[in-house]
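PROTEIN DESIGN WORKSHEET
SECTION A - STRUCTURE
LENGTH: 104
TOKENS:
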């Protein structure tokens, strides 16, 4: 049986280790559809609780949290900081230092 894109995305997100981040586009590419970053966002929105995903480890390609202030931004930032992820100027995460790189 072939895994769906959604199932692969869930599997990839579950593999992101503590103290590391991955981008929406990176996850989409790892799941076989490099232009499906918005689908990754949908998966996070619909399945984070149910699948117990480490949703807080997924950020945008600019190294920033995609959530808006007072809509989860502060929670995500605090969770990442607790894992040792550092934020620079304008709350940008250094992807060279903190981005997770692994083939699935």
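SECTION B - SEQUENCE
RESIDUE ASSIGNMENT:
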């Amino acid at each position: 049986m072939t895994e769906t894109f959604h199932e692969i995305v869930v599997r990839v997100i579950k593999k992101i280790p503590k103290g590391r981040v991955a981008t929406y586009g990176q996850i989409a590419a790892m799941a076989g559809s490099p232009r499906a970053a918005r689908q990754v966002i949908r998966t996070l929105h619909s399945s984070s609780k149910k699948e117990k995903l480490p949703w807080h480890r997924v950020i945008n390609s600019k190294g920033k949290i995609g959530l808006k202030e007072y809509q989860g931004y502060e929670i995500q930032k605090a969770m990442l900081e607790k894992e040792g992820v550092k934020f620079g100027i304008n709350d940008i995460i250094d992807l060279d230092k903190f981005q997770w790189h692994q083939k699935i």
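SECTION C - NOTES
Strands lie at 22-23, 58-59.
The radius of gyration is 13 Å.
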